[in-house]
Design a protein that fits this description.
Layout (H helix, E strand, L loop, with lengths): L7 E4 L22 E4 L2 E4 L7 E7 L3 H13 L5 E4 L16 E2 L10 H19 L4 E2 L3 E5 L5 H14 L5 E4 H7 L7 E5 L3 E3 L1 H14 L3 E3 L4 E6 L9 H4 L2 E5 L4 E9 L5 H7 L7 E12 L10 E4 L11 E4 L5 E4 L3 E2 L13 H8 L2 H9 L1 H12 L1 H8 L11 E13 L10 E4 L2 H4 L2 E6 L8 H16 L2
Pfam family, one: DAO
Enzyme class: oxidoreductase
EC number: 1.1.99.2
Length: 466
Protein backbone atom coordinates (compact mmCIF):
# COMPACT_ATOMS: atom_id res chain seq x y z
CA UNK A 1 0.00 0.00 0.00
CA UNK A 2 1.55 3.30 -1.00
CA UNK A 3 1.01 6.45 0.99
CA UNK A 4 0.53 9.43 -1.29
CA UNK A 5 -1.26 11.98 0.85
CA UNK A 6 -4.03 9.60 1.91
CA UNK A 7 -4.55 7.10 4.67
CA UNK A 8 -6.25 3.74 4.31
CA UNK A 9 -9.68 3.37 5.88
CA UNK A 10 -10.99 -0.16 6.16
CA UNK A 11 -14.50 -1.24 7.10
CA UNK A 12 -15.01 -4.29 9.30
CA UNK A 13 -17.58 -6.84 8.33
CA UNK A 14 -18.27 -8.68 11.58
CA UNK A 15 -19.45 -8.13 15.14
CA UNK A 16 -18.78 -9.89 18.41
CA UNK A 17 -20.50 -13.16 19.20
CA UNK A 18 -23.64 -13.23 21.31
CA UNK A 19 -22.41 -15.55 24.02
CA UNK A 20 -20.42 -12.95 25.98
CA UNK A 21 -22.09 -11.98 29.24
CA UNK A 22 -22.48 -8.31 30.15
CA UNK A 23 -20.64 -7.27 33.30
CA UNK A 24 -21.97 -4.75 35.79
CA UNK A 25 -20.15 -1.44 36.22
CA UNK A 26 -17.21 -1.47 38.58
CA UNK A 27 -18.08 0.19 41.90
CA UNK A 28 -14.77 1.55 43.09
CA UNK A 29 -14.44 4.28 45.67
CA UNK A 30 -14.89 7.79 44.40
CA UNK A 31 -11.68 8.90 46.08
CA UNK A 32 -8.76 9.53 43.74
CA UNK A 33 -5.78 7.23 43.93
CA UNK A 34 -2.80 8.70 42.14
CA UNK A 35 0.70 7.72 41.21
CA UNK A 36 3.69 9.87 40.28
CA UNK A 37 5.26 9.37 36.88
CA UNK A 38 8.29 11.53 36.15
CA UNK A 39 7.01 14.16 38.54
CA UNK A 40 3.48 14.12 37.17
CA UNK A 41 0.31 12.82 38.79
CA UNK A 42 -1.78 10.20 37.01
CA UNK A 43 -5.05 8.64 38.08
CA UNK A 44 -4.53 4.93 38.67
CA UNK A 45 -8.04 3.82 39.62
CA UNK A 46 -11.70 4.68 39.33
CA UNK A 47 -12.87 8.14 40.39
CA UNK A 48 -16.51 7.12 40.56
CA UNK A 49 -17.16 8.32 37.03
CA UNK A 50 -17.41 5.44 34.57
CA UNK A 51 -19.30 7.03 31.65
CA UNK A 52 -17.47 9.03 29.01
CA UNK A 53 -18.18 10.57 25.63
CA UNK A 54 -14.97 9.18 24.13
CA UNK A 55 -12.64 6.57 25.60
CA UNK A 56 -9.14 6.25 24.15
CA UNK A 57 -7.59 2.80 24.58
CA UNK A 58 -3.80 2.95 24.73
CA UNK A 59 -1.54 5.21 26.77
CA UNK A 60 1.31 5.46 24.29
CA UNK A 61 2.42 8.61 22.54
CA UNK A 62 -0.15 8.40 19.71
CA UNK A 63 -3.11 7.66 22.00
CA UNK A 64 -2.14 10.40 24.46
CA UNK A 65 -1.51 12.97 21.73
CA UNK A 66 -4.90 12.15 20.16
CA UNK A 67 -6.66 12.34 23.54
CA UNK A 68 -5.06 15.70 24.26
CA UNK A 69 -6.01 17.08 20.83
CA UNK A 70 -9.62 15.90 21.11
CA UNK A 71 -10.02 17.51 24.52
CA UNK A 72 -8.48 20.79 23.34
CA UNK A 73 -11.02 20.87 20.51
CA UNK A 74 -13.98 19.69 22.61
CA UNK A 75 -13.46 20.78 26.24
CA UNK A 76 -17.12 20.11 27.02
CA UNK A 77 -16.75 16.37 26.37
CA UNK A 78 -15.88 13.76 29.00
CA UNK A 79 -12.79 11.85 27.84
CA UNK A 80 -10.74 9.05 29.38
CA UNK A 81 -7.59 7.11 28.48
CA UNK A 82 -7.22 3.44 29.43
CA UNK A 83 -3.69 2.04 29.78
CA UNK A 84 -2.95 -1.57 30.69
CA UNK A 85 0.41 -0.91 32.37
CA UNK A 86 1.16 0.85 35.66
CA UNK A 87 2.82 3.70 33.77
CA UNK A 88 2.11 5.51 30.54
CA UNK A 89 4.46 5.14 27.56
CA UNK A 90 5.74 1.78 28.82
CA UNK A 91 6.43 0.14 25.46
CA UNK A 92 7.22 1.62 22.03
CA UNK A 93 6.93 5.20 23.29
CA UNK A 94 9.49 4.54 26.01
CA UNK A 95 11.71 2.08 24.13
CA UNK A 96 12.99 3.91 21.06
CA UNK A 97 16.06 5.75 19.83
CA UNK A 98 14.76 9.15 20.95
CA UNK A 99 15.44 10.85 17.61
CA UNK A 100 13.41 13.82 16.35
CA UNK A 101 13.37 13.01 12.64
CA UNK A 102 13.38 15.71 9.97
CA UNK A 103 11.49 13.93 7.15
CA UNK A 104 14.24 13.07 4.68
CA UNK A 105 13.39 9.47 3.87
CA UNK A 106 9.75 9.62 2.84
CA UNK A 107 8.16 9.82 -0.60
CA UNK A 108 7.57 13.47 -1.61
CA UNK A 109 3.91 14.39 -1.35
CA UNK A 110 3.17 11.44 0.93
CA UNK A 111 1.27 11.68 4.18
CA UNK A 112 4.30 10.40 6.11
CA UNK A 113 6.50 13.15 4.70
CA UNK A 114 4.01 15.91 5.45
CA UNK A 115 3.25 14.68 8.96
CA UNK A 116 6.92 14.28 9.84
CA UNK A 117 7.95 17.76 8.68
CA UNK A 118 4.92 19.30 10.39
CA UNK A 119 5.37 17.09 13.47
CA UNK A 120 9.01 18.12 13.94
CA UNK A 121 8.06 21.80 14.19
CA UNK A 122 5.17 21.01 16.54
CA UNK A 123 7.41 18.80 18.69
CA UNK A 124 10.08 21.46 19.15
CA UNK A 125 7.44 24.07 20.00
CA UNK A 126 5.73 21.74 22.47
CA UNK A 127 9.03 20.99 24.19
CA UNK A 128 9.83 24.71 24.40
CA UNK A 129 6.39 25.55 25.79
CA UNK A 130 6.49 22.74 28.36
CA UNK A 131 10.15 22.95 29.43
CA UNK A 132 11.04 19.50 28.10
CA UNK A 133 14.77 19.30 27.35
CA UNK A 134 15.97 18.35 23.87
CA UNK A 135 19.08 18.79 21.76
CA UNK A 136 19.33 19.78 18.10
CA UNK A 137 22.47 17.74 17.58
CA UNK A 138 21.93 17.13 13.87
CA UNK A 139 22.42 14.00 11.81
CA UNK A 140 24.91 12.85 9.19
CA UNK A 141 23.77 10.23 6.68
CA UNK A 142 27.11 8.89 5.53
CA UNK A 143 28.08 7.22 2.26
CA UNK A 144 31.15 5.09 2.95
CA UNK A 145 31.87 4.24 -0.70
CA UNK A 146 31.21 5.58 -4.19
CA UNK A 147 28.41 3.08 -4.80
CA UNK A 148 26.26 4.73 -2.13
CA UNK A 149 26.60 8.30 -3.44
CA UNK A 150 23.75 8.16 -6.02
CA UNK A 151 21.35 6.94 -3.31
CA UNK A 152 22.60 9.67 -0.97
CA UNK A 153 22.01 12.36 -3.60
CA UNK A 154 18.49 11.04 -4.20
CA UNK A 155 17.87 11.35 -0.47
CA UNK A 156 19.00 14.97 -0.63
CA UNK A 157 16.59 15.67 -3.49
CA UNK A 158 13.79 13.92 -1.62
CA UNK A 159 14.45 15.96 1.52
CA UNK A 160 14.43 19.17 -0.51
CA UNK A 161 11.08 18.25 -2.05
CA UNK A 162 9.70 17.48 1.42
CA UNK A 163 10.66 20.92 2.70
CA UNK A 164 13.28 19.71 5.19
CA UNK A 165 15.21 22.74 6.42
CA UNK A 166 18.96 23.20 6.28
CA UNK A 167 19.91 20.11 4.28
CA UNK A 168 23.28 20.12 2.56
CA UNK A 169 25.70 17.65 1.03
CA UNK A 170 29.22 17.63 2.49
CA UNK A 171 32.46 16.00 1.40
CA UNK A 172 34.98 13.84 3.22
CA UNK A 173 36.92 16.76 4.68
CA UNK A 174 33.84 18.37 6.21
CA UNK A 175 32.68 14.99 7.54
CA UNK A 176 35.97 14.82 9.47
CA UNK A 177 35.48 18.36 10.76
CA UNK A 178 32.02 17.49 12.08
CA UNK A 179 32.79 13.92 13.18
CA UNK A 180 36.59 13.52 13.45
CA UNK A 181 36.44 9.74 13.92
CA UNK A 182 33.90 9.05 11.16
CA UNK A 183 34.94 7.70 7.77
CA UNK A 184 32.93 8.62 4.68
CA UNK A 185 33.27 9.91 1.13
CA UNK A 186 30.14 12.05 1.19
CA UNK A 187 27.33 12.78 3.63
CA UNK A 188 23.98 14.47 3.96
CA UNK A 189 23.92 16.93 6.86
CA UNK A 190 20.53 17.42 8.55
CA UNK A 191 21.09 20.09 11.23
CA UNK A 192 17.44 20.21 12.30
CA UNK A 193 17.42 16.59 13.50
CA UNK A 194 17.40 16.32 17.28
CA UNK A 195 17.02 14.04 20.26
CA UNK A 196 14.53 13.96 23.12
CA UNK A 197 13.12 11.50 25.65
CA UNK A 198 9.90 10.53 23.86
CA UNK A 199 8.64 8.73 26.94
CA UNK A 200 8.84 12.00 28.84
CA UNK A 201 7.05 13.80 26.01
CA UNK A 202 4.25 11.21 26.02
CA UNK A 203 3.81 11.52 29.78
CA UNK A 204 3.64 15.28 29.37
CA UNK A 205 0.79 14.81 26.88
CA UNK A 206 -0.95 12.71 29.54
CA UNK A 207 -0.39 15.33 32.21
CA UNK A 208 -1.70 18.06 29.92
CA UNK A 209 -4.75 15.92 29.12
CA UNK A 210 -5.52 15.51 32.82
CA UNK A 211 -4.98 19.17 33.60
CA UNK A 212 -7.64 19.97 31.00
CA UNK A 213 -10.15 17.63 32.62
CA UNK A 214 -9.41 14.26 31.04
CA UNK A 215 -9.04 11.10 33.11
CA UNK A 216 -6.33 8.45 32.86
CA UNK A 217 -6.91 4.91 34.13
CA UNK A 218 -3.78 2.78 34.43
CA UNK A 219 -3.70 -0.99 34.97
CA UNK A 220 -6.84 -1.32 32.81
CA UNK A 221 -6.19 -4.03 30.23
CA UNK A 222 -9.08 -4.32 27.81
CA UNK A 223 -10.58 -7.81 27.65
CA UNK A 224 -13.68 -7.09 25.58
CA UNK A 225 -15.97 -4.53 23.97
CA UNK A 226 -19.74 -4.97 24.28
CA UNK A 227 -22.86 -3.01 23.44
CA UNK A 228 -25.47 -2.15 26.06
CA UNK A 229 -28.95 -2.76 24.72
CA UNK A 230 -30.86 -1.40 27.69
CA UNK A 231 -30.34 0.69 30.82
CA UNK A 232 -28.57 -1.13 33.62
CA UNK A 233 -30.58 -1.12 36.85
CA UNK A 234 -31.84 2.32 37.74
CA UNK A 235 -29.19 4.03 35.65
CA UNK A 236 -30.72 5.51 32.50
CA UNK A 237 -27.22 6.25 31.17
CA UNK A 238 -27.08 2.74 29.70
CA UNK A 239 -28.55 3.95 26.41
CA UNK A 240 -26.53 7.18 26.30
CA UNK A 241 -23.26 5.25 26.72
CA UNK A 242 -23.92 2.05 24.75
CA UNK A 243 -20.35 0.70 24.55
CA UNK A 244 -19.09 -1.19 27.59
CA UNK A 245 -15.34 -1.73 27.85
CA UNK A 246 -14.50 -4.67 30.09
CA UNK A 247 -11.09 -5.00 31.72
CA UNK A 248 -9.18 -8.18 32.49
CA UNK A 249 -9.84 -7.54 36.20
CA UNK A 250 -13.60 -7.20 35.51
CA UNK A 251 -13.60 -3.42 35.87
CA UNK A 252 -15.86 -1.63 33.36
CA UNK A 253 -16.08 1.75 31.69
CA UNK A 254 -18.87 2.87 29.36
CA UNK A 255 -18.60 5.19 26.41
CA UNK A 256 -20.48 6.75 23.55
CA UNK A 257 -17.48 6.20 21.29
CA UNK A 258 -14.12 4.42 21.46
CA UNK A 259 -10.80 5.25 19.80
CA UNK A 260 -8.17 2.51 20.07
CA UNK A 261 -4.46 3.24 19.66
CA UNK A 262 -3.12 -0.12 20.77
CA UNK A 263 0.37 -0.15 19.27
CA UNK A 264 1.72 -3.68 19.60
CA UNK A 265 -1.82 -4.96 20.22
CA UNK A 266 -3.72 -2.84 17.70
CA UNK A 267 -4.72 -5.86 15.59
CA UNK A 268 -6.03 -7.81 18.59
CA UNK A 269 -8.01 -4.84 19.88
CA UNK A 270 -9.59 -4.46 16.44
CA UNK A 271 -10.45 -8.16 16.34
CA UNK A 272 -12.28 -7.82 19.68
CA UNK A 273 -14.80 -5.59 17.92
CA UNK A 274 -15.18 -7.91 14.94
CA UNK A 275 -12.56 -6.48 12.59
CA UNK A 276 -10.23 -8.42 10.33
CA UNK A 277 -6.93 -9.69 11.72
CA UNK A 278 -5.12 -8.07 8.77
CA UNK A 279 -2.94 -6.08 8.76
CA UNK A 280 -1.22 -8.28 11.31
CA UNK A 281 1.12 -6.78 13.87
CA UNK A 282 4.43 -8.60 14.05
CA UNK A 283 6.95 -7.52 16.67
CA UNK A 284 10.56 -6.94 15.65
CA UNK A 285 13.04 -6.51 18.46
CA UNK A 286 15.98 -4.16 18.09
CA UNK A 287 18.99 -4.67 20.37
CA UNK A 288 21.30 -1.73 21.02
CA UNK A 289 24.89 -1.63 22.17
CA UNK A 290 26.18 1.07 24.51
CA UNK A 291 29.42 2.91 23.91
CA UNK A 292 31.47 2.92 27.10
CA UNK A 293 31.67 6.41 28.69
CA UNK A 294 35.42 6.69 28.13
CA UNK A 295 34.84 6.10 24.40
CA UNK A 296 31.95 8.52 23.85
CA UNK A 297 34.37 11.03 22.31
CA UNK A 298 34.35 8.84 19.19
CA UNK A 299 30.91 10.13 18.15
CA UNK A 300 29.33 13.57 18.60
CA UNK A 301 25.91 13.37 16.95
CA UNK A 302 23.63 11.05 14.99
CA UNK A 303 25.46 9.04 12.32
CA UNK A 304 23.17 7.07 10.00
CA UNK A 305 23.74 4.79 7.00
CA UNK A 306 22.47 5.39 3.49
CA UNK A 307 19.35 3.17 3.30
CA UNK A 308 19.64 0.08 1.14
CA UNK A 309 16.32 -0.52 -0.68
CA UNK A 310 17.10 -4.25 -0.84
CA UNK A 311 16.61 -4.56 2.93
CA UNK A 312 13.37 -4.05 4.87
CA UNK A 313 14.94 -2.05 7.73
CA UNK A 314 17.30 0.91 7.94
CA UNK A 315 20.43 -0.61 9.47
CA UNK A 316 22.71 0.23 12.38
CA UNK A 317 23.41 3.80 13.42
CA UNK A 318 24.94 5.91 16.20
CA UNK A 319 22.46 7.76 18.40
CA UNK A 320 23.33 10.13 21.28
CA UNK A 321 20.91 10.16 24.21
CA UNK A 322 19.68 12.92 26.48
CA UNK A 323 21.51 11.33 29.44
CA UNK A 324 24.83 11.62 27.62
CA UNK A 325 25.10 7.96 26.64
CA UNK A 326 25.58 6.75 23.07
CA UNK A 327 23.44 3.96 21.59
CA UNK A 328 24.76 1.86 18.71
CA UNK A 329 22.47 -0.25 16.55
CA UNK A 330 19.91 -1.66 16.48
CA UNK A 331 19.60 -4.94 14.68
CA UNK A 332 16.10 -6.13 13.73
CA UNK A 333 14.97 -9.65 14.64
CA UNK A 334 11.60 -11.32 15.04
CA UNK A 335 10.39 -10.93 18.63
CA UNK A 336 8.94 -14.16 20.00
CA UNK A 337 7.02 -12.08 22.53
CA UNK A 338 5.28 -8.83 21.57
CA UNK A 339 6.61 -7.08 24.65
CA UNK A 340 9.77 -9.17 24.92
CA UNK A 341 12.81 -6.97 25.44
CA UNK A 342 15.26 -9.73 26.35
CA UNK A 343 17.09 -11.97 23.91
CA UNK A 344 15.33 -15.17 25.03
CA UNK A 345 11.87 -13.78 25.89
CA UNK A 346 9.17 -16.09 24.57
CA UNK A 347 5.37 -16.18 24.52
CA UNK A 348 3.65 -19.17 22.93
CA UNK A 349 0.54 -17.28 21.76
CA UNK A 350 2.58 -14.46 20.22
CA UNK A 351 4.93 -16.89 18.49
CA UNK A 352 2.19 -19.11 17.07
CA UNK A 353 0.25 -16.02 16.00
CA UNK A 354 3.25 -14.61 14.13
CA UNK A 355 4.54 -17.81 12.53
CA UNK A 356 1.03 -18.89 11.56
CA UNK A 357 0.56 -15.71 9.49
CA UNK A 358 1.36 -16.30 5.83
CA UNK A 359 2.44 -12.68 5.39
CA UNK A 360 5.33 -13.18 7.82
CA UNK A 361 6.33 -16.44 6.14
CA UNK A 362 6.47 -14.63 2.79
CA UNK A 363 8.57 -11.82 4.31
CA UNK A 364 10.98 -14.34 5.85
CA UNK A 365 11.26 -16.26 2.58
CA UNK A 366 12.10 -13.07 0.70
CA UNK A 367 14.62 -11.72 3.22
CA UNK A 368 15.89 -14.87 4.95
CA UNK A 369 19.56 -14.00 4.45
CA UNK A 370 19.03 -10.57 5.97
CA UNK A 371 17.14 -12.16 8.87
CA UNK A 372 19.86 -14.72 9.59
CA UNK A 373 22.48 -11.97 9.59
CA UNK A 374 20.44 -9.83 11.98
CA UNK A 375 19.88 -12.77 14.32
CA UNK A 376 23.60 -13.58 14.29
CA UNK A 377 24.48 -9.97 15.12
CA UNK A 378 22.01 -10.10 17.99
CA UNK A 379 23.99 -12.92 19.62
CA UNK A 380 27.45 -11.83 18.48
CA UNK A 381 28.55 -8.34 19.52
CA UNK A 382 31.65 -8.55 17.35
CA UNK A 383 29.49 -8.97 14.25
CA UNK A 384 27.44 -5.91 15.20
CA UNK A 385 30.58 -3.88 15.88
CA UNK A 386 31.94 -4.89 12.46
CA UNK A 387 28.93 -3.20 10.83
CA UNK A 388 29.51 -0.07 12.91
CA UNK A 389 33.22 0.02 12.02
CA UNK A 390 32.26 0.95 8.46
CA UNK A 391 31.57 4.42 9.87
CA UNK A 392 33.91 4.62 12.88
CA UNK A 393 36.92 2.37 12.14
CA UNK A 394 38.49 3.00 15.58
CA UNK A 395 35.59 1.27 17.33
CA UNK A 396 36.50 -2.01 19.05
CA UNK A 397 34.44 -4.77 20.66
CA UNK A 398 35.90 -3.89 24.05
CA UNK A 399 34.53 -0.34 23.64
CA UNK A 400 30.89 -1.45 23.89
CA UNK A 401 28.53 -3.25 26.24
CA UNK A 402 25.05 -4.64 25.70
CA UNK A 403 22.40 -1.98 25.96
CA UNK A 404 18.60 -1.72 25.98
CA UNK A 405 16.16 -3.16 23.47
CA UNK A 406 12.90 -2.07 21.92
CA UNK A 407 10.11 -3.88 20.08
CA UNK A 408 8.63 -2.29 16.98
CA UNK A 409 5.03 -2.98 15.98
CA UNK A 410 5.34 -3.72 12.28
CA UNK A 411 2.11 -4.07 10.33
CA UNK A 412 2.22 -6.71 7.59
CA UNK A 413 -0.25 -7.54 4.86
CA UNK A 414 -0.94 -11.07 3.61
CA UNK A 415 1.62 -10.72 0.81
CA UNK A 416 4.44 -10.06 3.28
CA UNK A 417 4.66 -6.36 2.48
CA UNK A 418 5.46 -3.88 5.24
CA UNK A 419 2.38 -1.66 5.56
CA UNK A 420 3.62 1.89 5.23
CA UNK A 421 0.26 3.66 5.35
CA UNK A 422 -1.84 4.88 8.22
CA UNK A 423 -4.63 2.33 8.59
CA UNK A 424 -7.91 3.07 10.36
CA UNK A 425 -10.57 0.41 10.87
CA UNK A 426 -14.25 1.15 11.12
CA UNK A 427 -17.08 -1.33 11.31
CA UNK A 428 -20.73 -2.16 10.80
CA UNK A 429 -23.49 -2.63 13.32
CA UNK A 430 -23.98 -0.80 16.60
CA UNK A 431 -20.57 -1.69 18.05
CA UNK A 432 -18.51 -1.07 14.92
CA UNK A 433 -20.21 2.24 14.20
CA UNK A 434 -19.01 3.55 17.55
CA UNK A 435 -15.37 2.47 17.30
CA UNK A 436 -12.33 3.73 15.43
CA UNK A 437 -9.14 1.67 15.49
CA UNK A 438 -5.75 3.12 14.60
CA UNK A 439 -4.36 -0.10 13.14
CA UNK A 440 -1.07 1.36 11.94
CA UNK A 441 0.74 4.60 12.71
CA UNK A 442 4.08 4.01 10.95
CA UNK A 443 7.46 5.37 11.96
CA UNK A 444 8.32 8.10 12.77
CA UNK A 445 5.12 8.21 14.85
CA UNK A 446 6.79 9.85 17.85
CA UNK A 447 8.16 12.79 15.83
CA UNK A 448 4.84 13.09 14.00
CA UNK A 449 2.65 12.49 17.08
CA UNK A 450 1.10 15.96 17.35
CA UNK A 451 0.48 16.11 13.60
CA UNK A 452 -0.94 12.57 13.65
CA UNK A 453 -3.17 13.60 16.56
CA UNK A 454 -4.72 16.34 14.44
CA UNK A 455 -5.43 13.85 11.66
CA UNK A 456 -6.93 11.32 14.10
CA UNK A 457 -9.05 14.03 15.73
CA UNK A 458 -10.37 15.04 12.30
CA UNK A 459 -11.31 11.43 11.58
CA UNK A 460 -12.95 10.98 14.99
CA UNK A 461 -14.99 14.14 14.45
CA UNK A 462 -16.09 13.04 11.00
CA UNK A 463 -16.94 9.46 11.95
CA UNK A 464 -18.70 10.23 15.23
CA UNK A 465 -20.06 13.67 14.26
CA UNK A 466 -18.78 15.29 17.46
Amino acid sequence: MAAHGKFVFRVCTGILGRNASLLKPHTASASLQTMKIAGRQFCSSNTGQTEFDVVIVGGGIVGLAAARELLLRHPQLKLAVLEKEKELASHQSGHNSGVIHSGIYYTPGSLKARLCVEGLELAYKYCDDNNIPYKKCGKLIVAVDQEEIPRLEKLYERGQQNGVKGLRLVGAEEIREMEPHCRGVKALDSPNTGIVDWGEVAKSYGSNFQQNGGQVFTEFEVADFKTTKESQGDNAEGLKYPVTIVGQNKQTVRARYVLSCGGLYSDRLAEKSGCSSVPKIVGFRGDYLLLKPEKCHLVKGNIYPVPNPAFPFLGVHFTPRMDGSMWLGPNAVLAFKREGYKLLDFNLKDTVDALGFKGLRKLVYKHWQFGVGELYRGFNMAAQVKQLQRYVPELRVQDVTRGPSGVRAQALDEEGQLVDDFVFDGGVGELGSRMLHVRNAPSPAATSSLAIAKMIADEVQNKFEL
